[in-house]
């Protein structure tokens, strides 16, 4: 398991956190999602079967959010 931390712009409430959670949990290999609209941080626990992490950014952008480049760990 690996944990990525993405800095996401555009979250303004708990509803945004829930939407991000739902969007990312649909990605195969995502084990857990924790979004915090007050800090803009989204923590994503992923398994080894998720080889293309770019799909996480694509899903977030499709949902209307912006991921700050270089903010993943």
Automatic annotation (TrEMBL):
<dbReference type="InterPro" id="IPR006121">
    <property type="entry name" value="HMA_dom"/>
</dbReference>
<protein>
    <submittedName>
        <fullName>Heavy-metal-associated domain-containing protein</fullName>
    </submittedName>
</protein>
<feature type="domain" description="HMA">
    <location>
        <begin position="2"/>
        <end position="68"/>
    </location>
</feature>
<dbReference type="InterPro" id="IPR036163">
    <property type="entry name" value="HMA_dom_sf"/>
</dbReference>
<dbReference type="Pfam" id="PF00403">
    <property type="entry name" value="HMA"/>
</dbReference>
């Amino acid at each position: 398991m690996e944990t990525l931390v993405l800095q996401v712009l555009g979250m303004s409430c708990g509803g945004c956190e829930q939407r991000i959670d739902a969007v990312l949990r649909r990605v195969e290999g995502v084990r857990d999602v924790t979004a915090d609209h007050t800090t803009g941080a989204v923590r994503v626990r992923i398994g080894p079967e998720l080889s293309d992490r770019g799909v996480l950014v694509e899903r977030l952008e499709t949902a209307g959010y912006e991921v700050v480049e270089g903010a993943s760990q």
